[in-house]
Specification:
103 residues; disordered N terminus; 83% helix; mainly alpha
Length: 103
């Protein structure tokens, strides 16, 4: 009985890991689409996509892109708040130094 429960728990964990990996892969694709939208000046569509990415994984880079979309849409206060949040997410991580400085 215990072996069966352990096997089931292991199977569930493996399935969850696969689902998480699929969600991350989809989020990466969506991030790339959103970047293209943003570069074309389509800030509304880019913002919606970046927010969907953030629902999967919140990072300083995603938050920074959300801030730039708000800025492009003329939402100055929201943009400032999102830039501040991007800085906070970046923290002291040297890999995220550029994001922290740009925010």
């Amino acid at each position: 009985m215990l072996f069966g429960a352990l096997a089931l728990a292991s199977l569930c964990a493996t399935s969850a890991a696969r689902a998480d990996e699929r969600a991350l892969e989809e989020a990466r694709k969506l991030f790339a689409e959103a970047l293209n939208d943003e570069q074309r000046g389509d800030f509304a569509h880019a913002l919606e996509k970046f927010e969907r990415v953030r629902a999967v994984k919140e990072t300083a880079a995603v938050e920074f892109r959300i801030a730039t979309c708000h800025k492009g849409l003329g939402h100055a206060k929201t943009a400032r708040d999102r830039f501040a949040h991007a800085r906070a997410l970046a923290g002291d991580d040297p890999k995220q130094k550029d994001i922290a400085e740009a925010s």
